[in-house]
Amino acid sequence: MDNAVLHIADVNKSFGGLHALSDIDLQVMEGTTHAIIGPNGAGKSTLLNICIGRLAPDSGAVVFNGEVITGKQPYEINQLGVARVFQTPEIFPDLTLLQNVMIPAFARRDGAFRLNGWQMASHQAEIMGQAEHWLEDVGLIGLRNRFAASLSRGDKRRLELAMGLVQHPRLLLLDEPTAGMSRHDTNATIDLLKKIKARGMTKVIIEHDMHVVFSLADRITVLAQGMIIADGRPDEVRGNPVVQEAYLGGTNP
Amino acid sequence: MDAFLLQLLNGLDKGGAYALIALGLTLGFGTLGVVNFAHGALFMLGAFIAVLVNRLLRLETVTIDPDQLTPWGTPAEIHTPLVQAWLGDFGAVLLQYSVPLSLLVAVPIMLLFGVAMERGLIRFFYRRPHADQILVTFGLAIVLQEVIKHYFGANPIPVSAPPALSGSANVGEWLGLGPGVYYPWWRLVYLSFSIVMVGLVIAFLQFTTWGMVVRAGMQDRQTVGFLGINIQRRFTIVFGIAAMVAGMAGAMYTPIVPPDYHLGMDFLVLSFVVVVVGGMGSVAGAVLAGFLLGVLQSFASMNEVKDLLPGIDQVVIYLVAVVILLVRPRGLMGQRGIMED
Amino acid sequence: MQMTTLRQEVLFMAIFTAAVLTMPFWLEPLGASYPDLLQKFAIYGIFAIGFNILFGLTGYLSFGHAAFLGMGSYAAVWSFKLLTMNVIPAVIFAVVLSGIFAAAIGYVSLRRSGIYFSILTLAFAQMSYNLAYSVFTPITNGETGLQLSLRDPRILDRTLDEAAGIPFPEFFGTEMNGYAGFYFCAVLLIICFFISMRIFHSPFGMTLRAIKSNQSRMGYTGFNTRPYTLAAFVISGMYAGLAGALLAVTDPLAGAERMQWTASGEVVLMTILGGAGTLVGPVIGAGVIKYFENIFSAYHEARLHEIFSFMPEPLQNFFVTITAPFVGEGWFLTLGLIFMLIVTFLPGGLMEGARRLGGLVVRRKSQQEPDKLATAGVGAQDHG
């Protein structure tokens, strides 16, 4: 448990004159669920974007599993075992749901590139089984042959989740996984995330919904204006006056 | 040195044509976000408007003069162009100046054509992928050139410059380079024409309120829309202007290269390269790149260069485009983020 | 786009094979069953199938595939000139060379996407075309085009009789003209179609579709997309090279005009017309275009008068006048118009049209038998 899977070391990032992140130093321990919360514009999504190689930090580095991953291509980072569930659904609208989930499963099995042009996709029983399994877990199995473009926003989020989970990543980054979902679906998602926690997947979760955060998180980091203002166990953070002020003084959570 | 100067001038007038076409292309792209593969065909249409005007002016009346006899003893037929018959000497002058005159015809026709094209076809493709835009305008280009081929035939049709301007200017003497450096007058005219046109378009966009609104709309279409300005209509007109500029460029080009129906395609590929090199959506970039590539191509076709690098004259423009696209995808003066990925 | 089972594939392949091999018979009533045209159907079918592997699956619109077509023709003719009149080495030589050529061009062009990719490929094709006309004249024979001659070395055929005049490409003794030429092309078309079908239904094909659908997501999903797109580019370049070689097999000469960008435009057109991203669409598109090109360009005014002869004279003249620009020389005008109409109203091509029609029929039926809708709906989507 003492082993840090992800270490964000002194990361700085600014856009023009705006300091999006200042000296962020953060460790995510193996097997934990680590929540990052904070008002809008606190730099949470920027932080995740740096972790998966979408943005490059101005200074500092991200170390995953003892390896510096800053400067690597996004696909290399993913192949090392970091997957992300996006805030705005990034799915494959022209593919069916089943194919949407099979694609990440192929990436996990075959690596970044494999000229697998001969065997039929429908004969990959193992991959298809995994995909169906996760579609079932997120409750979309009935729609498996629909095109992803036709889904509602909430369903797209659930598809995203299945796409992240099917890869069995060592580290899963979840960017507001329940945004746009009904209360019922949100609770189902919490249950699902608890279930995979039992299997020892490390997760970083960004969330506005405090119900979700306090149901899942082992540790919470609070960001405001690009700085860490609090970091600790949920009960510690909940009672922290600085955090309360940041939330009450800033935008509503 | 003389050869150098000549090549420079040679390149500049060709560059002028590139710049004028690329200007329109990049405007259409910057305003409407449309990739128009039919833009070269508009250049070609302009050229054929000049041909048509020339033909109309030459319509003749035939009178039979019983006093004059042909060598066979029949009364001679005297052909008189109608304009000359009606307007006398002035008509004769009009006939000589058919190419500049055709601009008067080309301006309204091409403007209307551009607007009609945008309203009738292009606007249905705003929300479609760029591939679809390329394809439908490619189809339109084929249609336009085939229509022209049907009416004017497949062979190039020579059109002469006004006689007063058809000789060569003794450029060498003016510039104190000594005798022997000659340059066709019409090419000088074309060069000045293209510079003036480019200047007019840029001034129009830069200094008139109307143009400023258009430029603001190119930057941020939504905000301008919120201000209650019908930006779409202005963009449509800009598209018409782009078509008009291409058409005028084509009409004026006829004395330099006799137009045939696939003139447009030849220029299109090159002007796309010009737009890419200049930067998609950048007006100044298109102009700069147009002249630059024209000159570059002209230098590449010098014998000294060709001996050194055989075939370079054929590929230099494309090579430049490839290098630019790989090294600096937004082009020389393009803005960051426009179709860049 | 459902998953297909092996049985469906076998059935589909059997139907396709039968349809291609019996083309000389069922095209008879349409007046299209002469060897020259049949060969073109097969050759351009291959070209379009290959183009579709790139454009239909990855969405990368290349405007430079004619370069590979021309490359294939030149390579095949050189094989005839230097090695042997047997078509096998010529075809292999052409496919390998155009594959290498495609790898080089693709490697550079695929660094950009969207319209920039189109322009890069266009630029490369124009360069090839210009060079073929100028500096490479010793290899391409410039404007005249590359032809066979009596003085060709033909190392492997030395023992053959030389007084017989210029030989014709042959397949172990069978000359590749007429129906023999068609069947050779047809067999290759079937093989090419089979390969393309496997690619479409494989994980590789699915990955390519995913790249088309959302390329940036592919990176975050762990795919290095560039080798995938490059592989698709090279495969489609090899198909184009094969088509070029077959053009030379059935008529052993090669000219630079095959590399011109209008030729690239033609294959784009065939693919779109049939339906980009569908399996059989491109073959149908190629067939339809080559068929109508053939029919329309053969028409002329006298023929039109015959067709409209059932009408009274003035009406007849009127119809002849308005239709005349579209036939004969005017075929390209018709082509351009069809193209615009298809892109505007039926972006999915003829295949989508067929599907829509099928959908209409199913819907009408289903109003009477509601329970059949589900099964029929799945079937209609099957070979998407």
UniProtKB/TrEMBL annotation, chain A:
SMART domains registered for this protein in UniProt: AAA
Protein name: ABC transporter ATP-binding protein
GO MF: ATP binding; ATP hydrolysis activity
InterPro entries, alphabetized: AAA+_ATPase, ABC_AA/LPS_Transport, ABC_transporter-like_ATP-bd, BCA_ABC_TP_C, P-loop_NTPase
Residue stretches making up the ABC transporter domain: 6-250
Keyword Nucleotide-binding applies: yes
UniProt entry keywords in alphabetical sequence: ATP-binding, Nucleotide-binding, Transport
Organism: Phyllobacterium phragmitis
Gene Ontology CC annotations of this record: plasma membrane
PANTHER family linked to this entry: CONSERVED COMPONENT OF ABC TRANSPORTER FOR NATURAL AMINO ACIDS-RELATED
From TrEMBL, chain B:
Transmembrane regions listed in the UniProt entry: 15-34, 41-57, 94-113, 134-152, 188-214, 235-256, 268-296, 308-327
Localization in the cell: Cell membrane
GO MF term set: transmembrane transporter activity
A GO cellular component annotation in the UniProt record: plasma membrane
Pfam families on file: BPD_transp_2 (PF02653)
Keywords: Amino-acid transport, Cell membrane, Membrane, Transmembrane, Transmembrane helix, Transport
UniProt keyword Membrane, yes or no: yes
Highest taxon, organism lineage: Bacteria
Main location: membrane
InterPro entries named among the record's database cross-references: ABC_transp_permease, BCAA_transport_permease
Entry similarity comment: Belongs to the binding-protein-dependent transport system permease family. LivHM subfamily.
Name used for this protein in its record: Branched-chain amino acid ABC transporter permease
Organism: Phyllobacterium phragmitis
